Amino acid sequence: MELISGNLLFFALGLAHTLQLAVVTLICSTVLGVALGGIASIDHLVPKLLVAAYVNVLRGIPLIVNVLFVYFVAPILGLALNGFTAAAVSLSLWGGANCAEIVRGGLQGVARGQREAARALALPWFVSFRKIILPQALRPIIPALAGLFTLLVQSTALGALVGVPELFRNAGIVVERAAIEHGGSPAFIVYGAVLLTYFVVCSLLTRMTRQLERHYRPEQRRPRAQRPAAASSAVWQDA
Q1: Which of 102, 146, 162, 192 is in Cβ range 3.0-4.6 Å of 209 for a Cys bridge?
Q2: Residue 48 in contact with residue 195, Cβ under 8 Å?
Q3: Cβ(174)–Cβ(7) under 8 Å?
Q4: What separation in angstroms does the CA of 75 have from each of 70, 82, 166?
């Protein structure tokens, strides 16, 4: 425990970079996924094929390969990306592809009559999508997005491969430093603390998404049946 408390500030800095990378990734993945999922739901063949190609390619590549590909290929294309930016871009592209598939499935679950009603009202596509279609699709979308968001938070540890000073990388530095200075391997204690930290963060994220899911869950109110005694007394009073 002295090793943890002695490097608490170092771990806090790593956690700050982890949370920063997670927030950027979640926002970009959501925006990209909603946009692509909406495009995939329109009745035009070319946009649907382009989105399907993007989704299939990104989902078919291992995430670790995607991170390394963006980091090492971007300079060849003239884009000098640091480790944080490369990790954020690669995670967002991968998360956006998975989010697009989730959004597309949720939108297809909305009754076709809702789209026809929006066309009958002469509403623009974006207005009908934002105010009519998307709110109804959120109920099946949110639980799936909760799992994707948790996976993206856990995947921020891949940023250590491209030099991002996030929690997992800082933990590895502490383990190596302690092994050199004191001998032995404190990996169990250090990585156990990292595991607990990821568990707390992902649990809080899951709890937030469940609250959001309850907010969009329709309330099922059943009418209370009138008791026979109350009904009979009401009849006698009327008589």
Answers
A1: 146
A2: no
A3: yes
A4: 9, 10, 22
